## 1
Amino acid sequence: MDFLQWNEKYALGIQEIDSQHQSLFLLINRLYRQMIRVSDPIEDNEILDELIKYTKVHFSFEENFFDKISFAESDKKLHKMEHLNFCAKIEEFQEKMLSGEEGLTTSMMIFLKDWLKNHILKTDMTYKIELDKISAPE
Ligand SMILES: [Fe+2]
Ligand SMILES: [Fe+2]
């Protein structure tokens, strides 16, 4: 069984965003598999780096997307703040890895997993709800 299992409850019903979220699940699972086998710091960083880059691609896609819909400015701001904080956190992991201070750890994997699950279910879902309101018939 995968470390992070995709399931329908994570689906926003917006195809491009759902498939980006699935790619993030895959990358976290790859990083987890990397952690449990004999780790190689260069390979560890390659996967982490891929995750960081793809996360940023996804975040900007999402921010562009919800900037276009009528969605409270304060919600957009909070949402972007969550994205920024997450990026800062994973970049901090990477710095620690590159300096040799820390390798891939279970607590880091659990952080990634919990953050992504909660963010999709609580924060990303809010713009899906706004979109549903717009497209719902009167
Ligand atoms: Fe988001
Ligand atoms: Fe997202």
## 2
Amino acid sequence: MRAATGSLLGLAYGDSLGKPTEFQEYATIVARYGPGGPRQLVGEPALVTDDTQMALAVGEALREATSITPGSLEPVLRRRFLEWAASPENDRAPGMTCLRAIGNLADGRPWARATQADSKGCGANMRVTPVGLMPGLTDDQRAGAAQFQAALTHGHPTGLAASELTAYAVFWLRGGLAPSGLLAALRERCAEQRKVYRGDWLGELWHRPAVTSPEEFIARGWDECAAALDRVAEALAGGDHTGDPCLRTGAGWIAEEALATALYVYLVSPDEPVAVLGRGAASSGDSDSIACLAGAFAGAALGLAAWPADWQTQIEYADRLFRLGRAWD
Ligand SMILES: [Mg+2]
């Protein structure tokens, strides 16, 4: 079913559909596209944003690294992020946290002194999907790499936990978990991992004023994510899924809300993937990031057949997306 390709394309399609709506009000979006939101790719190629560009950077770094360990992954991720930042195609309204942190990485300093320690912007979460798709990783490698790729730019514990949960959502859906079981599985992960600080990956990142232990540091991240997942459950139980999804589960500018609102728009209709993308893009908040994560979930579960075939040649970076997907399908 080519789940890796389906997930990466879903990510790019959602990103592209959400690109024009990211900075628009919900009423403006609905007036233009109808209540279902945008459902047609526009342009030849249909452009994506930094979300897809950085997801490709992470995915290609994972393939290039000789092993999935902090020592092997760090220099490769650093170089891929620097190449992205310097690229003339880095003109898609990228997040300030990424630009600042990567600017710091450029002078060669250790990543822990480059990262934006207090940022939990969704910029690390929107690019983590490849960590969920790469086959053959141990649980420690998948969780560690998900948090580590976040930590290079976003040092807040909620950014780390949300990235791990996003990677696991993709991984589990691809492995056949029923969407109806996804929220409970993620909620359980929050409880299990609450006191697990991955020191071999994160080093002394936890050292902050007034934080007394690594467990205290990371527990805050898991707790904020757990609260966001509870809001998704409430929103789904509410029954009426019309209107701006950001009013129910958050605008998505921060990591746990991007995860929550993407999960919400996906779980409303997991068997209608194009409707999922439109629902994510028709949102008042960070529409491209919400729709890209929702698309990654739908594609991981349904595979390449989830998407209209003619989009495959229309989407920007189709060659790189297919190359990465083919390696992991
Ligand atoms: Mg973007």
